[in-house]
Amino acid sequence: MPSPAPTEQAALALAEVVGAHALQVFVAALVLLLAAVALLAWSAERVAHRRHYRPRHPWARLALGVGLGFALIVGTSLLFAAISEEVADGGAAQRVDQAFMDAVQRSLSAPAREGFQIITLLGDPPTLATLGVIVTLLLWWRRERLLALGFVAAVAGNALLNTALKRVFERMRPLDAQGLPHVDGWSFPSGHSSGSLVVYGMLAYALLRTLPRAWHLPAVLAASAVAFSVGCSRVFVQAHFATDVLAGFASGSAWLVTCILSVELALGWQRRQQR
Description:
It contains ten helices and no strands. The chain is mainly alpha-helical.
């Protein structure tokens, strides 16, 4: 068997090191994510309160929002494409994924594994579906009809998209010591990761639209923490490879931004019609 290329050797070594300290890396990454989200929210708030930075015409604000959203969609789509290309090729990507998974399983304690088994339930399809029904009914009751329809479209659309992508790639799940998959179904991309990001992201967006400003930052931080933790839990419980989770985050982000932009455009059109 030929020896791995130098780049693959470096990737394998890095996977071993990170996997051996996976819990600490997860906590550090979560803290950095929440700090970045808080910083972005604080910056957006400051810009919004400085009048001379505001676009003067509503169409300018709309164009700015659409432009930023389009850039996010393109960026996350390119990330997904890059990951999927590596996964489709197999070989080095599969070996690095497996090395990382093995290192994580060796380093994880039983209590930590049990904790992540609880966290992962927050991204189970029944949990997300129940949450989706409750939020949709509450929004409809509050006469936020466009938000309610957008929420349904986001949840249902992501489920269909993830199912289609799984059938395209048909990647096997990680195997246990007996050579059997821990969970049924295809592995790439992670449905828990994309589903949690879309559902909790849309929930945060709905809260931003309906709650006082004081609740905005806590809602966004909570949604970010839950979505990120659920995605990472899929590796810790050995249900997905790390690249499955990254791809799920990428596809979920692209779909979430698409849905939020669509709702924003619909709300803007509705306001203009009511004038």
